[in-house]
Amino acid sequence: MNQQFAVIGNPIEQSRSPELHQTFAQKTGIHLNYVKRLAAPDAFKTSVEAFFAQGGRGMNVTVPFKEEAFALCDVLTERAKIAKAVNTLWRENDQLYGDNTDGQGLVAAMTALGWPLKNSQILIIGAGGATRGVIYPLAQAGARKIVIANRTLSRAEQLVQDLQQAVPQTTLQAMALNELSGNFDLVINATSASLTGEALVLPESLSFHYAYEMAYGKASSFLDQAKARGVKYADGYGMLVGQAIESFSIWHGVKPELQDFLD
């Protein structure tokens, strides 16, 4: 019988995880069954427990359950502890393990694009869970300085305070969104602006060489501005594939090549 895997969220129809994991399985000769599971807002815990009780091997977690998954785990990886969110679950020795592969997915995507992260100066716009999840992997990849810009400055300052100790080799700094300026190697949009249709205005006083939009498959004023400036840019599809590859590797011990899925 095929090994059972699933992605859980609400909503869940939009998830591309099943097609990605089926493709990885075909490329690596692994037999699996991977499905989407819709959970009611108050039924996440029971749905996860039922899945593993029925012999499920591994589960991906998407919005809005990543923080709840974090709280449910018996054992957490270092990057999950720092992110305070979990997107990858599995059971071992009667314990529920959790990891967060989002940040590593982002780093893998940028590395596949040939973008330099070592000694880089990075600006991340937004101070929510998506930003928290990528700081540690970016620091591990060699980022020298990461500035977090947010509409509410206190949220960015809180994030810096929470994470600075975890990344002593990287300088973290907070900035108010309306005071955006400076020279950066890379700017990452971690806000939901492209999903909500909000305009994100990048001032002329801000200069950068690379632009990454975490969302994918949507019109993005952030990427439009990057194109207009003639800098290199990419949307979040590579990050999506990268985090899926990392999850697949945890479960199966085999890592498909990200480059195969970006061409």
Automatic annotation (TrEMBL):
Pfam families noted in UniProt: SDH_C, Shikimate_DH, Shikimate_dh_N
Listed pathway(s): Metabolic intermediate biosynthesis; chorismate biosynthesis; chorismate from D-erythrose 4-phosphate and phosphoenolpyruvate: step 4/7
The organism's place on the tree of life at top rank: Bacteria
Active site feature: 66
EC number: 1.1.1.25
Residue ranges the record marks as coiled coil: none
Catalytic activity: shikimate + NADP(+) = 3-dehydroshikimate + NADPH + H(+)
Binding positions (NADP(+)): 78, 126-130, 150-155, 214, 236
Domain Quinate/shikimate 5-dehydrogenase/glutamyl-tRNA reductase: 116-194
Residues binding shikimate: 15-17, 62, 87, 102, 216, 243
Sequence similarity: Belongs to the shikimate dehydrogenase family.
Reported function: Involved in the biosynthesis of the chorismate, which leads to the biosynthesis of aromatic amino acids. Catalyzes the reversible NADPH linked reduction of 3-dehydroshikimate (DHSA) to yield shikimate (SA).
Subunit structure: Homodimer.
Listed PANTHER family: BIFUNCTIONAL 3-DEHYDROQUINATE DEHYDRATASE_SHIKIMATE DEHYDROGENASE, CHLOROPLASTIC, SHIKIMATE DEHYDROGENASE
Stated name of the protein: Shikimate dehydrogenase (NADP(+))
Species whose genome carries this gene: Acinetobacter radioresistens SK82
Higher taxonomy: Bacteria, Pseudomonadati, Pseudomonadota, Gammaproteobacteria, Moraxellales
Gene: aroE
